[in-house]
Amino acid sequence: MNHPEPFCKMKHPEPFCKMNHPEPFVLSSPQGVSKDPAVRRSNSIARAHDKEESTGMAFYVYLLRCSDDSYYVGHTDKLESRIAQHQSGSIAGYTAKRRPVTLLKAEDFPTREEALAGERQLKGWTRAKKEAWITDDFMSLKRLAKKPRIHETTY
């Protein structure tokens, strides 16, 4: 059965699977992924732009690198104008004092609710896990998604 992208590793159609299984869920498919970060970033932005033009409405989760090397995660329905707002400082808040910003990755979603769920999920991830997602390093994403085991000792 084919499922739309993005999908969890268990191939559930929901982009942010609510099931509690040991596999990490990812926000994009590993097929056809370029190893060049600039190509991945430009392809991600191009797909987002194409979807907006073809459907009339798309929602995005995006990740920015700020001038202090921190990350900012947000969601929007107008990716290009939102990035321009962050870049100009017209959005008061976190990014206004950390310009310039660089778009590292954006993923599109069919509904605002799914994009908001994606934003919340990414905000909960460690920096290492976000970096694995940015670079499409699915092996690291899987490793970082696992909970550390706690070894009990008996005395």
By secondary-structure content and strand pairing, the structural class works out as alpha+beta
Query: Residue share in helices?
Result: 25-40%
Question: pLDDT under 50 segments (min length 5)?
Answer: 1-26, 28-35
N-end to C-end Cα span: 51 Å
Main-sheet strand order equals 2-1-3
- Tally of DSSP β-strands: 3
Name the average pLDDT: 76
Q: What radius of gyration results from the CA coordinates?
A: 17 Å
Largest sheet: 3 strands, antiparallel
Order of helices and strands: HEEHEHHH
What's the overall geometry?
elongated
What share of the residues does DSSP label as strand, in percent? 5-15%
Describe this structure in words.
This protein has five helices and three strands. The chain has 155 residues and is α+β, with helices and mostly antiparallel strands. Strands 2-1-3 form a three-stranded antiparallel β-sheet. It is elongated, with a radius of gyration of 17 Å.
Describe the secondary-structure layout.
Layout (H helix, E strand, L loop, with lengths): L36 H19 L3 E7 L5 E6 L2 H10 L13 E8 L2 H12 L3 H8 L3 H8 L10
Helix pairs in contact: 4-5
Task: Kindly list the characteristics that best describe this protein.
155 residues; alpha+beta; three-stranded antiparallel β-sheet; 5 helices; disordered N terminus
